[in-house]
Amino acid sequence: MTLHINNGLIQDSYLGEVPILQRIVTSQGSANNVRTHLPLEGPIGVTIHNTGNSAPSADALAHASWLANVEAEDSLYVGAHFFVDAQRIVQTLPLNEISWHAGDGMGKGNAATISIEICETSPYERCEANAMALAAALMETYQLNDLYTHEMWSGKYCPRLILVREGGWQGFVEGVARIRAAETMPPMAAPVLDNTPSPWAQEAVDWALANRFLVGDDTGNLRLHAAPTREELVAILHRITKERG
Ligand SMILES: [Zn+2]
Hints:
Layout: E1 5-6, E2 9-10, E3 14-15, E4 18-22, E5 45-50, H1 60-73, E6 82-84, E7 89-91, H2 108-112, E8 113-118, H3 124-142, E9 147-149, H4 150-154, H5 160-163, H6 168-184, H7 202-210, H8 230-244
Parallel strand pairs: 4-7, 5-8, 5-9, 6-8
Antiparallel strand pairs: 1-2, 3-4, 6-7
The chain binds zinc ion.
Zinc ion is lined by residues 49, 150, 156, 158.
């Protein structure tokens, strides 16, 4: 699905079933250390991280509070547009503003990609699934094709829990592509089954089904009210004759 974004802020309250919360860091102090107020170029893609904090309490809301404190203290130059855990997506910086996440200074990682920090809280699979859904929605919204790891920009081993798995990054990229493909495919029409006999035919249909003289097609449709072709008719007669020996 595409997101509604106004002034860099997501207007939607949910992505599918997952709540999207706004915890935009308020500018404080003199240093532009979290709130950079620098315009993001593009964006050209989305960069994926793990928070690197496996404490059970280190969820997306805790990280949003932590980031607000970092801004207040004017010391660390760090930031991310999103923190995602198993229950929620939290936006912490406007999407039209550079965040310090990629370790490449004013390179393309920081200057031109949206940053998603995946929390390492439990159940971790949900954290990653929610991040995949968010990445897919952002890429769909901005019409992007490129996903990046932190490692690609500056060599840091991040997102560590994805990179450590054999084929982990490839799997993540494919998961995002699958979500996007599923959403752009027209929904399949539910098959209409014609399996309810008229009252007068009920006994005969039950008999034919019980003896497997009448069988449905491969969707389970008996097509009870459709006229048989001549070959369908003889196939039924043939089954009955064989049964009778
Ligand atoms: Zn990282």
